[in-house]
Amino acid sequence: MDACIACGTCAEKCPAKVMDEFNEGLAKRKAIYVPYAQAVPLKYAIDRDHCIYFQKGRCRACEKFCPTKAIRFDDVETDITLQVGSVILTAGFTPFDPSKFDNYQHAKFPNVITSMEFERILSAGGPFAGHVKRLSDGVEPKKIAWLQCVGSRDVNRCDNPYCSSVCCMYAIKESVIAKEHLGKDFEPTIFYMDMRTYGKDFEKYYDRAKEQGVRFIRSRVHTITEVDASGTLNLVYANDAGERIEENFDMVVLSVGMEPAQSAVDAANILGVELNPFRFVKTDDTHPVDTTRKGIYVAGALQGCKDIPQSVVEASAAACQASVGLSAARGTLVRDKIFPAELNVGGDAPRIGVFVCNCGINIGGIADVPAVAAYAKTLPHVAYVEEDLFACSQDTQEKMVEVIKQENLNRIVVAACTPRTHEPLFQETIRNAGINAYLFEMANIRNQCTWVHSTEKDKATAKAKDLVRMAVSRAALLEPIPDLSVPVSKSALVIGGGVAGMTAALSLANQGFAATIVEKSNCLGGAALDIHHTWRGQDVKLYLNGLIEEVAANANITVLLNAEVVDAAGFVGNFETQIRQNDSVQTIAHGATIIATGGKAAVVNEYGYGKNPRITRWHDLENCPETLADAKSVVFIQCMGSRDANRPYCSRICCTTSVSQAISIREQKPDTSVFILYRDIRTFGERELLYKKARELGVIFIRYSLDNKPVVTETANGLLVDVFDPILQKRVQIEADLVNLATAIEPAPNEDIAGFYKLPLNAEKFFMEAHAKLRPVDFASDGLFVCGLAHYPKSIDESIAQAMAAAGRASTVLSKTAISVSPLVSKVDTGKCIGCGLCAEVCPFGAIILEDADGKGYRAKNISASCKGCGLCASSCPQKAIEMLHFKDEQILAAVCAAGR
Known about the structure:
Blueprint: H1 9-13, E1 19-21, H2 34-37, E2 44-46, H3 52-56, H4 61-65, E3 87-89, E4 93-95, E5 112-114, H5 115-122, E6 143-150, H6 167-182, E7 187-192, H7 202-211, E8 215-218, E9 224-226, E10 233-238, E11 244-249, E12 251-256, E13 258-260, H8 262-270, E14 296-298, H9 308-326, E15 352-357, H10 361-364, H11 369-376, E16 382-388, H12 394-406, E17 411-416, H13 419-432, E18 440-444, H14 446-450, H15 457-475, E19 484-487, E20 491-495, H16 499-509, E21 514-518, H17 540-553, E22 557-560, E23 563-571, E24 574-581, E25 584-590, E26 592-595, E27 599-601, E28 615-617, H18 620-623, E29 633-640, H19 654-668, E30 673-678, H20 688-696, E31 700-703, E32 711-715, E33 718-725, E34 730-736, E35 738-743, E36 745-747, H21 751-757, E37 784-786, H22 796-814, E38 818-821, E39 826-828, H23 838-842, E40 848-852, E41 858-862, H24 872-876, E42 882-884, H25 889-899
Parallel strand pairs: 3-14, 5-12, 6-7, 6-12, 7-8, 15-16, 15-17, 17-18, 20-21, 20-26, 21-22, 26-37, 28-35, 29-30, 29-35, 30-31
Antiparallel strand pairs: 1-2, 4-13, 9-10, 10-11, 19-38, 23-24, 24-25, 27-36, 32-33, 33-34, 39-42, 40-41
Helix pairs in contact: 5-6, 6-7, 9-22, 11-15, 12-13, 15-25, 16-17, 16-22, 19-20
């Protein structure tokens, strides 16, 4: 309580205005939290009956903004009762604490840090403003070592036998970014056991890191010692040949793994949700987000170690599952936000309000914000200028509304951070004042200015003034743009009838939406028809039969077998797709489209596959168990046709599949020798337990490299496999009865579908999502979604989760009568258009068509709902007949010309 300086910030920041003044005669006034107000007579106290925290369990703005941290909520307990139909657990993880390992000296040596701590160093808001420095002396490091698997894949010291799944990729990312920060002379080194870059485009990133000078050493460092007073660190390790090597580094980053947070475990226990032996929430492969308690779902790292894309997928999947149970109540508790009537200011002279944000110290600690605000007052059309501590705070937003009304402002400029995250917030704010959302401009004086000029305060201030001047010049020419919405056809088309396609269709049908499955073959099931068990051992055949029966019994699902898409048109909420089936073509209208076209195992020419019956691939051994009857020796060869120049990606599930089959063989026939020849064993997550079990059962693992691949030759009695063993440092020969190849997984032929719907494919012909992390099942074009092997190789549980996620995202479209779309689209001046068709040709979204203009020839027409506002049509038009709303030439040129003043 002595920390309070009676500044009044708490009362000022409180959105509910519940910090009431009272005076008990003390000379020193203080703010105090209510539990103590009875004992200590102070100046400010909280009205608990109206405090947002006490009533709803949120806010705590007073605690957040108190400059001396005199307000706390630690000693307050409130019971809040919520009536809900579903619960989704997303409580996350806690990083492993390496201080318990005395050999790494994390707690003792300042230059030994964790990966999370290094992330903070890299951050522009971190302790060194984004500059990489040693903690011991502030000097830039020349060499940094990353040590992998700290707190993961370890049963001896921390009892975490699982792989944390994300550490390899974040170590590569950190090393690459550090290289960018520190220049070409910087030497990053990653010490690892297996490099697990199994995700989409991860292998390419790994290859790129090697090309950029990141050194990868396959070795596990045991001990770190300090060699001098400056904190230089000595690492001792062994190479493949068993040679002992000592090397000094300036810093060491410990790539720490994931553990369930104790608070999350406690919450799961309170809810009666069962946990697995590692205290992650227990699920099964065919219900990847369902907990053991009906109506409670889980997503993210609380279910098991995973990266951001998979966490986002599971979050959407869990929301979808919750929506199934809550579909009958959909919309009953929704309240539409009502904005005041929009003022007609389009013809008025510009009266621009400029709000300059300090963003704490992110902007105000570098640029001279008062000077920037003073400069803004001198600019043409500026009627009001204000400097704010946090422009995005709730109290500032409310004040902004009042200022707009009082000052008759009709254009708003906010000089703050990035419009990517904050523009919608400010647009909503000015709508609350009756101003059209598009009479707003944002000057990014944080990301584009103070963050990149953190050591050049004068230049940062000058650049901030430039950015504000440009924003004001453009804002003066902005025009109001009306909202745009389109009606929605409440049905979906699912292309592909495998596990992903059927799951997506059922997830929609069980919410009451009609779904049509289009399958090219004569039966449902897809790639799962060849799979016998999931990696956890669940019976896939049994599950698949039940899934097919469930689809057939659902009245909301129509299945078209021996059918294929031959053409498509339309936009979100209003697609029309032509389907050919049995020599007839029908047109199906639908509001959303889910692409689940699947994939297949590649056919390779290596090792005599297809010529010698002893050489098989993937599930051939499971599908024909009699081939194993007399086998005394079986060899699995990984990475056949993948992770090479032709297919520079990892197929993700091959290691797990081969290890699972090897375990099955050893369990059923203990006398059979089983070998797995691999480049990296990528049994990520809890799949690592399979790798451990296989070794315990006597499966022999031999690593090979791409430039020294195994050689398979036919002999009179079977096959001879010759491979170099890096541990023995010599070639070994294995007499094998069978050789099974884990060939690459390829997508189905996707070019036609991509062409019909204007969807992007990557170099390997997998569909490209809108954003790898934030929108992993969406396409850039609204109303179109992807799941399963069409997106990238994945296991059944991951395909099911992604299918649920795609259905969940589709339901956000189908649940609406009409859907709002961005009105920032192209506009065609038909008087200037000559009908050349160039705009329609270059549009990647099919948003421009040519149509007959009342006998005057063909003219371009914009389909606003399909348009993404990319501007390709406008920039390509030779007649300048197309302009982009909100980005007209004169608006852009005004900002450009202002930059030169």
